[in-house]
Design brief:
CFA/CMAS, elongated, four-stranded mixed beta sheet, alpha/beta, Nonspecific Lipid-transfer Protein, Chain A, about 45% helix, EC 2.1.1.-, seven-stranded mixed beta sheet, lipid metabolism, transferase, Rossmann fold, CMAS, 2 domains
């Protein structure tokens, strides 16, 4: 058969490129081993139509085939991700469509709200099964490297609030407040008066409930609101894991809005994922295409150089920049481990398709951060064209020294 000749040739090409701990099992019982070692991953193809995904094994094609049930995969998810990347890199060229292509997305308030709700409104019970007890869904901060996830997430929040020198009685706006962990911490430990905004219905409801349960209703306000609709003035502004949804073309507008909301002498912290491609391209081998289709519709990652440029255009001066890429690799790895450990419970609160999407997404994200496909930067800003009086001379203030 024609497909059989093509498949045999592809298998030999992959074998010659590198020995993979992979076994391929076809619907007719035929199987191929890609090395002499015992396989760590078994890929089962239940019907001939799925062969095309193997012959053109971009991470988008393989991911889609798995999510849609066209192929079945057995093995530890981190091994699965490693083998999938090896298949893609040994078969495809990194440049061109399957390289780090650049997309242009239109971001309206309606589209952004729909994209946020698609990602974050799976269900609160779903997120509880792999996040920490505070439900912090962003890069943790491992001060020593041996912290558990919950401790590292609290350290991340404190790291941010220390960086912006939050003081009792100051007003704080948290753009993309999630389930409220940062504003609750800012009110309880630092004595701030906080506003947290989100576009997720589920986050809004649970964050309000948590604020009330903590007895902070007079100190913390949670709003279902777009950042473009916020008015007023705030002493401090944080944005954690949100600007990935803004859109590259909208970044000057986004930072200008933050600058307009910031009080004179105020400080801003922007914490977000960036691409490591200088042309703002997606993750290679179709990984970005998969994420856009199944995980973060309309998400766009700028390079850090673009972040700093558009901050300046928006009226903000970068004061402190820190790369936490390794921290996010570790965070995503912990999330992936939690996800695997709670497989049975997760399958009870969501459908099989969502389970498969998130299983490969979390482990794949850890892989991408580990290999510098994507990164994470915290940038502290102040308003441009203002005196630097009052700013600390060193970074000692961040660490309490």
């Amino acid at each position: 058969m024609f497909w059989e000749k093509k498949l045999n040739a592809w298998v030999e090409n992959v074998r010659n490129a590198s020995a993979l701990p992979l076994r391929l099992v076809l619907w007719n019982g035929q199987q191929y081993d890609f090395s002499q070692e015992a396989p760590e991953v078994t890929l089962k193809v239940p019907q001939a139509s799925a062969i095309t995904s193997l012959l053109n094994p971009s991470l988008a094609n393989l991911g889609e085939a798995y999510v849609e049930g066209k192929i079945e995969v057995e093995g530890a998810v981190k091994n699965i991700i490693s083998v999938a990347n090896a298949l893609a890199s040994n078969t495809l060229k990194a440049e061109g469509k399957l390289g780090r292509m650049v997309r242009s997305v239109t971001h309206t308030k309606k589209k952004d709200a729909e994209a946020i709700q698609y990602h974050y409104d799976v269900s609160n019970d779903f997120y509880k099964l792999f996040l920490d007890e505070h439900m912090v869904y962003s890069c943790a901060y491992f001060e020593n490297g041996d912290e558990d996830l919950a401790t590292a997430q609290i350290k991340k929040i404190d790291h941010i609030l220390n960086k912006i020198q939050l003081k009792p009685g100051q007003t704080l706006l948290d753009i993309g407040c999630g389930w409220g962990a940062l504003v609750i911490r800012a009110a309880q430990k630092f004595g701030a008066k906080c506003v947290g905004i989100t576009l997720s219905q589920n986050q809004y409801a649970l964050a309000k409930e948590r604020v009330e349960r903590a007895g902070l209703a007079g100190q913390v306000e949670i709003r279902l609101q777009d950042y473009r609709d916020v008015t007023g003035t705030f002493d401090r502004i944080t944005s954690v894991g949100m600007f990935e949804h803004v859109g590259i073309k909208n970044l000057p507008l986004y930072f200008k809005q933050i600058s307009n909301l910031l009080a004179d002498g105020g400080m801003v912290m922007n914490h977000g994922i960036t691409t490591t491609d200088i042309d703002n391209g997606e993750s290679p081998y179709g990984a970005g295409e998969f994420i856009d289709k199944y995980v973060f519709p309309a998400g766009e990652l700028p390079h850090i150089s673009v972040v700093l440029k558009t901050m300046q255009e928006g009226g903000l001066e970068a004061f402190d920049v820190e790369n936490l890429r390794r921290h996010y690799a570790k965070t995503c790895s912990m999330w992936a481990d939690n996800f695997e450990a709670n497989t049975e419970a997760i399958r009870k609160v969501t459908d099989e398709k969502h389970y498969r999407i998130w299983r490969v997404y979390l482990a794949g994200s850890a892989y991408g951060f580990e290999r510098d496909w994507i990164s994470l930067y915290q940038v502290v800003c102040t308003k441009t064209n203002t005196s630097a009086q009052g700013l600390p001379w060193s970074r000692n203030y961040i660490y309490g020294q």
